[in-house]
Structures are given as C-alpha cells and as structure tokens.
Design a protein that fits this description.
The protein has 279 residues and is an alpha/beta fold. The protein has a single domain, classed as NAD(P)-binding Rossmann-like Domain (Rossmann fold, 3-Layer(aba) Sandwich). The radius of gyration is 18 Å and the shape is globular.
Length: 279
C-alpha cells in the first residue's frame, strides 16, 4: 500500500515548479491533494496531472496573505477531501531586489507578507483539526537566506529566517499532541522565481551570483525536495521535528544521523551552547 493512502495533503504554491512536484509526489503515495495558489489555470493543470495518474485532487484558488480566504479554503478542503493531515507551505514571493535603501517599501513588505504571514495563516487554519485528531505534519519551505546574510534579498531572507523560527515555535507547542512542524530548504531550483532573478534587470544588477551558481552546475532537481517531503509526511523523519532538512541531503544518511543531530541541537536557528551560557 502507498504510504499516504487515506490522508489529505495541502500544498500551497502548487501550480508550478517545486510545489507542483511536491503535489504530484504526495498523490503518487496515495494522498488526496488540495492544490492552492492564486493562479487558477496553473493549479488546475496540476490537478489534471494528478487525476491523469489516477489520483484525487482539487484546485483551490487562494491568496494566503488573506486569512478569510485561507479559512474558506480549508473549510472547502475539509468538506470535499476530509481533515488535513499534511500541510506543505511552499508559497513564496521574492520581488524586492537591492539594498534596503533602494527597495520599494511596499514591494519589500509584500514579500514578507506572502512568505511569513501566509505561512502563519495556513498553519493557524490547519492546526486545530490536527490537534483534535492527535496527528499532523506541517512542512514550511525556507531557503539559503535562512541562516546566512542575503544583502540584496533582505525581505525574502528575513521572511525565511522568520519562518524557520515560526516552525520551531509551532513545533514546540504542538509536538506533545503528535503534531509536528518541519522546515525544508529545497536548494537552488530553476523556477519562475529564479528565472526572474536571472533575467530581470534588477536581478542581473543585484543578484549576478545566481547565474554563476547555475553555470557551476548548482541546480537541484525539485524531485529531491518532493521525495524528502513525502518521507516527512510518512513519518520517516519525525525525530527531526522542529529542525531544518535540505533537498540536497542524502535521505538514508540523514536518517542514520538523526539522533546525533538532535543531540548536537543541529539544524536549528539558535545560539550555540556557549553563547546561551553568556545570556
């Protein structure tokens, strides 16, 4: 039997790229999938691909930055598919390029609003039912800007670092009820977002290193993150709840290292033990 049979998964930003691959992989493992995004044609295409493979899915057009829209979306999902067991927050915005003093404040804030507020909204909508049922997993996608400075992508990086902290806070408040939260960095994947970084004037001016990374062959297939997230949904990495997992990880090796990572308090957004002692 497929590992996710009789479960319901929600994948935001599921109309293309990484999100579409995540939705397809969840369906291949038997999950019924709700595909969310703002662009109806894209998520309908993802649903069509799932249905063509014999799976069950629905397309739900939603702006995750609007909580009333998210509430309505989750009510529809519960009605048509059943209670959500896996939530994958893959939505993302990266429009504000450049140093802080040159970024349009509204564009900068919109990146934060979609990325961080959207993740809060969907998590808030999903957790009550998960807690009531005593099971659930939430996967929040982060990025390389989570743990490193990203001077010309400050809005995006700040939001992703905040999502990492939100993941830890959420997990710490739900794990006693068998509801777990995880962060996943899919790696550098060629997507609509990276295409804009590569070919827009602002991207070429402020983010030239992206092109160099692709030239150097740093291009992660989205299937790696999708397979990792399917393993998470199936419970393989429950020991690492509240921590960061990466698309580039060797999943078998990661499973072997889980206990040592936890013992070292690795893959977390925290001060070192020595720094903690000084506080």
């Amino acid at each position: 039997m497929a590992r996710l049979t009789d479960t319901v998964a929600v994948v935001t930003g599921g109309g293309r790229g990484i999100g579409r691959e995540i939705a397809l992989q969840q369906a291949r493992e038997g999950a019924k999938v709700a595909v969310l995004a703002r662009t109806a044609t894209e998520i309908e295409e993802t649903v069509s691909l799932i249905q063509g493979g014999g799976g069950r899915a629905i397309a739900v057009t939603t702006d995750v930055a609007e909580y009333s829209a998210v509430e309505s979306a989750f009510a529809r999902i519960a009605s048509e598919l059943g209670p959500v067991e896996t939530l994958v927050n893959n939505h993302g915005s990266f429009q504000a390029f450049g140093p802080v003093w040159e970024c349009d404040p509204l564009v900068w804030w919109r990146d934060v609003e979609i990325n961080l507020r959207g993740t809060f909204h969907t998590s808030r909508a999903a957790t009550p039912t998960m807690l009531a049922r005593g099971k659930g997993r939430i996967v929040n996608l982060v990025s390389g800007g989570t743990g490193n400075s990203f001077p010309h992508g400050s809005g995006y990086a700040s939001s992703k670092a905040a999502i990492m902290r939100l993941t830890e806070c959420l997990n710490d408040t739900t794990i006693a009820h068998n509801v777990r939260a995880f962060a996943v960095d899919p790696g550098l994947v060629r997507s609509a977002m990276t295409e804009m970084q590569l070919f827009s004037e602002a991207g070429k001016t402020y983010l030239p290193g992206i092109q160099q990374l692709f030239d150097d062959g740093v291009d992660i297939d989205p299937s790696r993150a999708a397979l990792l997230i399917t393993d998470i949904a199936a419970g393989r990495f429950d020991v690492l709840a509240g921590r960061l997992l990466r698309g580039v990880d060797d999943r078998d090796g990661l499973e072997k290292d889980m206990e040592s990572l936890v013992a070292a308090d690795g893959r977390a957004l925290r001060f070192t033990a020595i720094e903690q002692q000084k506080l």
